[in-house]
């Protein structure tokens, strides 16, 4: 038997612990002893709508205790990072090799656990802009896990990057990522015009923010909608969008993207960038996984920026 975190509608933040049978790996899966997991707002928010005792969790890092029976992938004792559609917040997981990557010895389990959802979302969203050297990029949600990774990767690609922040203190955090300009206050998105037009916009806010950003796209520009933290509806000026021509609004869902990408290779890439200190995860909270309810509640109340990592004893 192993312990895992499950959805419990009666718990303060809808999470509780339960003993379940240890996972049985399929031939193309490795059995991993989980050392750390990271939290994403989406999975925490979604837990409130899931059935009781369902098992949440996407990001994890740990040690292979049983390699895949097909003989491929990381071997026993390998340090790995991975991604699951559910159930990653467990003492052990059976992970498909396609979603698993070995990590360097110098990379901590805490840093590694931040990479799958946030890191891959940032990487794949930026790739929608093609060659980024010399291009102008606007990123909303700049102080979140995805935003901080996106800023760093965009800056290293030679782009001119503009971000957002709700306070001057958080603006300093965005500047540290290499952002060229930071707009303070989400109600002032229209002021971003002076730094545009933009070849690529990555938006995680949705609602009125998305509507205000679309006219700021350059010809052949792409707006990648990765979330909707403010509102899941938006009123778009279709006349402007259609008559301007050549602009693209791309709906981004990581689950769909993973079916068309080499996840293991891209996780390895992100891990190497962190090891080489070219990409720095912003971990604001580290705690034992027994504090899941407190950390989840603080995340939903936006009491910290960056990532939260839980350690499994």
UniProtKB/TrEMBL annotation:
SUPFAM superfamilies: GroES-like, NAD(P)-binding Rossmann-fold domains. Pfam families: ADH_N, ADH_zinc_N. Residues 10-310 form the Enoyl reductase (ER) domain. GO terms for molecular function: acryloyl-CoA reductase (NADPH) activity. This is Zinc-binding dehydrogenase. It comes from Paenibacillus xylanilyticus.
